[in-house]
Design goal:
By secondary structure, the protein is of the alpha/beta class. It has 5 helices and 5 strands, in the order E-H-E-H-E-E-E-H-H-H. It has helices spanning 18-34, 50-61, 96-106, 110-125, 134-151; strands at 3-9, 41-48, 69-73, 80-81, 87-95.
């Protein structure tokens, strides 16, 4: 499986250098491999601030408030095609402010929170939905915990 991960950093609150880019890319690729995605694909990631994610949350979900992460899957109907014939799976948007504040709130590292949100969002791109009732929530959260454990990000 060849997965291209394009990351765009549009915030200045959280340093987002080579190590954090590698963490996000590694988490996405791990989820895709663990879920059996064998075709060449692409995922886009936007790192923004609370205002940027609030605007997207308002415009696309009708919720005029910031959130920690948004996922926009492109494969719900016909698969999208990215450059080089890869399948475009979708976009992930992360709020750096939420990553920082939630890491402090939950008492773990920024890297662990970034891994958690990235795994969560990637599962959404693959069709997992915790808002689809108890069974959907249970399946998604169990898979998420297993993947984070495999990545070395247990609680």
């Amino acid at each position: 499986m060849q997965a291209v991960v394009d990351i765009l950093n549009r915030q200045r609150r959280m340093p987002f250098g080579r190590e954090r880019r590698a963490l996000v890319t590694g988490c996405i690729r791990h989820v895709l491999a663990a879920e059996g995605v064998a075709y060449p694909c692409e995922v886009s990631v936007l790192i923004t601030d609370d205002e940027g994610i609030r605007n997207l949350n308002r415009d696309y979900r009708g919720k005029d408030q910031p959130t920690d992460v948004l996922s926009f899957a492109l494969e719900e109907g016909q698969p999208g095609t990215a450059a080089g014939g890869r399948r475009a799976l979708g976009d992930i948007v992360l709020s750096a402010q939420r990553v920082i504040s939630q890491a402090a709130e939950y008492g773990h590292s920024i890297e662990r929170e970034l891994a958690f949100l990235t795994v969560h969002a990637t599962l959404h791109l693959l069709g997992y939905d915790h808002e689809a009732g108890y069974s959907g929530e249970a399946a998604m959260f169990a898979r998420q915990a297993e993947l984070l454990k495999n990545l070395g990000y247990e609680r």
